[in-house]
Amino acid sequence: MKKLLITGFEPFGGEEINPSWEAVQRLPSEIGGYSLTKLLLPVVFGDAAESAIAEAERISADVIVCIGQAGGRNAVTPELVGINLRHASIPDNCGNAPEDEPIIAGGNAAYFSTLPVRKIAEAINSVGVCARVSYSAGAYVCNDLLYTLLAHFENSGVKVGFIHIPYSLEQNKEPAMDINDVIKGLTAAIENIDNS
For residue 196, is pLDDT > 70? Predict the structure, then answer.
């Protein structure tokens, strides 16, 4: 069975929960021919990616799928691209607040996801969960994680991608999505990772 590392984030920005980790925790241990390893990541520039890389290498992951919260979005949004930029609108959970810094000095301007993001978005929509491709993972820790993983695993055969999800209903913010719908959407996404 192939190995998939799926990550979620701890709460940040004063929130008590992070729906990314709430959803990841509730996924089954096997989906679509993949055994899932679940990892909680810190909302800290650099540290999140280091933790994910270490765990991916420890389990010899075939695929890495990272999940994060994107407040303000009303759909599950697979990310197409990670950019070489750190810019914090709020400090991370260790108080770091970079302003327009490169993630990797002299690195590529951007890397494209190595997951079939359009097929994944279609698959999520097909199970009745709103989804669309996103062309910006922002410049906060989510993008930092995506870009660093894509750079690290370039040409390794390890597929890497990132999926943003809306607030959950429990957070009492709008727009929001029921966590059960998020889980249904993520399951469909994983089932279609090899659908290139």
Answer: no
DSSP 146-185: HHHHHHHTTTSS-EEEEEEE-EEGGG--SSEE-HHHHHHH
Q: Could you tell me what percent of the chain has a pLDDT over 70?
A: 99
Active-site residue, 152 included? no
The pLDDT score that the predictor gives to residue 195 is 80
Positions of E strands within the chain: 2-9, 30-31, 34-41, 63-69, 77-78, 81-83, 110-112, 159-165, 167-168, 176-177
79 catalytically annotated: yes
Check 57, 79, 152, 170 and give the catalytic one.
79
Residue 90 confidence (pLDDT): 97
Question: Over 80: is that where the pLDDT of 3 sits?
Answer: yes
**Residue 50 known to be catalytic:** no
Question: Of the listed 22, 66, 152, 164, which one is catalytic?
Answer: 164
Mean pLDDT computed over 30-44: 98
- CA-angle at 74, arms to 69 and 77, nearest 5°: 60
Active-site residue (options: 142, 152, 174, 191) = 142
Total H helices, total E strands in the chain? 5, 10
